Amino acid sequence: DFTMTLYLRHYWRDERLSFPSTTNKSMTFDGRLVKKIWVPDVFFVHSKRSFIHDTTTDNIMLRVFPDGHVLYSMRITVTAMCNMDFSRFPLDSQTCSLELESYAYTDEDLMLYWKNGNESLKTDEKISLSQFLIQKFHTTSRLAFYSSTGWYNRLYINFTLRRHIFFFLLQTYFPATLMVMLSWVSFWIDRRAVPARVSLGITTVLTMSTIITGVNASMPRVSYIKAVDIYLWVSFVFVFLSVLEYAAVNYLTTVQERKERKLRERFPCTCGISNSKTMMLDGNYSESDANSLAGYTRNQMVPEEEKQEKMVVHLAMSNESNLSRKRGLKGHVGLRIVQNTHAIDKYSRLIFPGTYIFFNLIYWSVFS
């Protein structure tokens, strides 16, 4: 609904009120004379509440001209119903109308029309609303039919309201976008940092839920989907998918490490050369250091808790390793570098931002 305060002015001619005068151009009376003469019985259709201002007296003015023309003016505040469509909320424009009609007289008894068309509406240029921008006013008129009483003239004051978007950008769209971008930070965090990635994902999901709850509490309760609902729930899905992405990464990493552990237990040596030794290096050893460590096994050199921080090197040498300085290193060296980034994380760094940007382009092109 909407509330409007207006000066409602009626013009008609009643020859019974004409008077001869050469000095007075008109005579003005207050509301006391209104009850003694005929006045149009105009009412507001679909009004919920309306009243005539009465401070300090009734805000009614009656002006009679010598030829019988009458000006009847009153100051009224009316709250009327407006059929609004919130499917594009908050990027919507609403068209509302204030309807005036005679209550008792049909079109055969009383004809209502605008005196000067659209020029009949005079608005204050300083009018401003907190949520809407008043774009235009215009007038129309048509006949309304009631099955039991007949046809009536009905006048319309139509005005278009466009909602201000900046408030919703600050309170809804920007926070939701920032939460989605924050969820992408987990793609750059080491996949073994389980507490960091899990806590970041859960925090963004809970924050998005809070934003959706807060926005819905202040929005009109309608049964259909609004434009802001689409944006918020798509953003929530992106945040939720980032949590599922790490769950998939963690699961695949666990499965991969389990398979590699079984392979190492089944094949402790990586080559078929007899009398070979297996050890672990951190990548900083020279050939002489490797020869000096040829008698140590991997378990003897590196504690169990430091295995994941080292670069695993399976080094197999023949018994003639002492002659390797002359003939070069004979043997097969196999390296396996434990990477900190999973392939899913690499793809997610591109897929998630690209998809979200594409969604924003479609969303703002459709609803703006």
UniProtKB/TrEMBL annotation:
<feature type="transmembrane region" description="Helical">
    <location>
        <begin position="165"/>
        <end position="186"/>
    </location>
</feature>
<dbReference type="GO" id="GO:0005254">
    <property type="term" value="F:chloride channel activity"/>
</dbReference>
<dbReference type="InterPro" id="IPR006029">
    <property type="entry name" value="Neurotrans-gated_channel_TM"/>
</dbReference>
<dbReference type="GO" id="GO:0045211">
    <property type="term" value="C:postsynaptic membrane"/>
</dbReference>
<keyword id="KW-1015">Disulfide bond</keyword>
<feature type="transmembrane region" description="Helical">
    <location>
        <begin position="230"/>
        <end position="252"/>
    </location>
</feature>
<keyword id="KW-0628">Postsynaptic cell membrane</keyword>
<keyword id="KW-0406">Ion transport</keyword>
<dbReference type="InterPro" id="IPR006201">
    <property type="entry name" value="Neur_channel"/>
</dbReference>
<keyword id="KW-0325">Glycoprotein</keyword>
<dbReference type="InterPro" id="IPR018000">
    <property type="entry name" value="Neurotransmitter_ion_chnl_CS"/>
</dbReference>
<keyword id="KW-0869">Chloride channel</keyword>
<keyword id="KW-0812">Transmembrane</keyword>
<keyword id="KW-0770">Synapse</keyword>
<dbReference type="InterPro" id="IPR038050">
    <property type="entry name" value="Neuro_actylchol_rec"/>
</dbReference>
<dbReference type="Pfam" id="PF02931">
    <property type="entry name" value="Neur_chan_LBD"/>
</dbReference>
<dbReference type="InterPro" id="IPR036719">
    <property type="entry name" value="Neuro-gated_channel_TM_sf"/>
</dbReference>
<dbReference type="InterPro" id="IPR036734">
    <property type="entry name" value="Neur_chan_lig-bd_sf"/>
</dbReference>
<dbReference type="InterPro" id="IPR006202">
    <property type="entry name" value="Neur_chan_lig-bd"/>
</dbReference>
<keyword id="KW-0407">Ion channel</keyword>
<protein>
    <recommendedName>
        <fullName>GABA(C) receptor</fullName>
    </recommendedName>
</protein>
<keyword id="KW-1003">Cell membrane</keyword>
<dbReference type="GO" id="GO:0004888">
    <property type="term" value="F:transmembrane signaling receptor activity"/>
</dbReference>
<keyword id="KW-0472">Membrane</keyword>
<feature type="transmembrane region" description="Helical">
    <location>
        <begin position="198"/>
        <end position="218"/>
    </location>
</feature>
<feature type="transmembrane region" description="Helical">
    <location>
        <begin position="350"/>
        <end position="367"/>
    </location>
</feature>
<keyword id="KW-0813">Transport</keyword>
<dbReference type="GO" id="GO:0005230">
    <property type="term" value="F:extracellular ligand-gated monoatomic ion channel activity"/>
</dbReference>
<feature type="domain" description="Neurotransmitter-gated ion-channel ligand-binding">
    <location>
        <begin position="1"/>
        <end position="164"/>
    </location>
</feature>
<keyword id="KW-0732">Signal</keyword>
<keyword id="KW-1133">Transmembrane helix</keyword>
<dbReference type="InterPro" id="IPR006028">
    <property type="entry name" value="GABAA/Glycine_rcpt"/>
</dbReference>
<dbReference type="Pfam" id="PF02932">
    <property type="entry name" value="Neur_chan_memb"/>
</dbReference>
<keyword id="KW-0868">Chloride</keyword>
<comment type="similarity">
    <text>Belongs to the ligand-gated ion channel (TC 1.A.9) family.</text>
</comment>
<feature type="domain" description="Neurotransmitter-gated ion-channel transmembrane">
    <location>
        <begin position="172"/>
        <end position="364"/>
    </location>
</feature>
<dbReference type="GO" id="GO:0034707">
    <property type="term" value="C:chloride channel complex"/>
</dbReference>
